[in-house]
Amino acid sequence: MSRVRLIKPAATVLLTTLVGFAAPLASAATSVALTGLDLQPRSVTLQGMDDREIGLFDASRKYATLPLDTVLVLTMLDTAGAPVKPDNPLNGAEPSVAELIDGQRLVGSLIDADDQGQSVVWSSPLLPNVNVSVSLEKLSGLTLHGEPKEIEAGAADRVVLMNGDSVTGFVNRVFARSLQVQVEGAKEPVSLPLERVRAVRFAAAGRRTGDGHRVTLRDGSVLLTPTLSVSDDRLTIKPGLLGGKDVTLDLVKVARIDVATPKGRLVDLATLAHETTSGGEVFGVAMPPTFRPGAVRMHAPVAVAFDLPRGAARFAARAELDGADVDPARLAAWADTQLIATEDGKEIGRWRLNGAAASAQINIPVTGRRLTLELDPAHNGPVLDRVILIEPVVLVSGDK
Question: What is the DSSP string of 40-91?
């Protein structure tokens, strides 16, 4: 079981039921992109929220309330109207990341462990005065040095060392400065100092999606909470990971809120079962598509088929030319590709991406069993025909 230690918990801020608001508080001014069941984000100013309603000012500064169960996502916006960017709260120091089997995530530092090595104690700068103890059986991965990278989960635990080597076996203990891994065939476990360990990927068994509202903080931490409220630009949640205690955060520490609603849920396209049905090679060099939470990258020519979940209703994403490491003038001159969506063999959408139109917003109905995304070269062949799908999601209707 997970053990939680709370030190001087923050004071609770409760939100008065929105129905009772006589006049909205003009001082509350957090700009957000609100995405509803139509998957069309719109910019609003968040004024308040409880478990039933959300109060907001629209683009014309008109105040309105919406039932919370009609909202899927609230994305915090910066002063330029763009989604807030991840922020390192450790003043340049290298953060560590603990990933849980239910999708929760803690960014910060491993500061301690219990005497038996069965739980690690985590500290997060965005959760002041709170240290979290998590049992190893609840962890899917630990990244102790560097940015988390995709490490394939298997039937056994895998320890990746700083020099790139890896050790496979069963991680039976993690202490504050070392861990022990039982390697198959060995009589005694191998002890490794944590300063030599880059990451640990625990066996895949038992992974699931946790229930509740999903709150993503600016540092990349993710917490699940059964309830939430917003008042005076502050968010109050009750994360089970923190013992169900009230935790209040300034909204400037929050990047995104995924609302749990019975009317529908969003599924990350990158998490769906998929196969590359063609392509994945450019000029004889392997360039397979890559799948990370919130992002799918493809290089033409390639086609990827995704198995849609039962009850799938819509697919949405932002497609952009993927040229962060390329001179913009060269990208504009050479990149030219078509993204084609087919459902069960029938074309349902097509978008051209090139120097004149480097991005496209996708929002289409899907009701079949399989969605295929194909990236075809247009002019100039497949030179720099790379596309990233940002926040690709499938809406699954709530009655499924």
Answer: -EEEEEEEEE-SSEEEEE-TT--EEEEEGGGEEEEEEB-TTSSBPPP--TTT
Helix (H) or strand (E) holding 113: strand 105-113
Summarised one tens digit per residue, pLDDT across range 286-305 is 999 999 888 999 999 999 99
Question: Looking at this protein, which amino acid is placed at residue 366?
Answer: V
pTM over 0.85: no
Residue ranges of domains in the chain, CATH in brackets: 18-81+220-261 (no CATH), 88-201 (no CATH), 267-397 (2.60.120.1060)
DSSP code of 20?
Answer: G
Rounded Cα–Cα distance for residues 141 and 147 (Å): 13
Each residue of 79-97: pLDDT tens digit?
Answer: 888 888 777 555 556 778 9
* 360 backbone dihedrals φ, ψ, rounded to 5°: -150, 140
Structure tokens at 135: 């049992």
Q: How far apart are the first and last CA of the chain?
A: 31
Paired strand residues for 98: 106, 142
Please report how many Cα atoms fall inside a 13 Å half-sphere around the Cα of residue 221, on the Cβ side: 25
Alpha-carbon span 385 to 261, nearest angstrom? 38
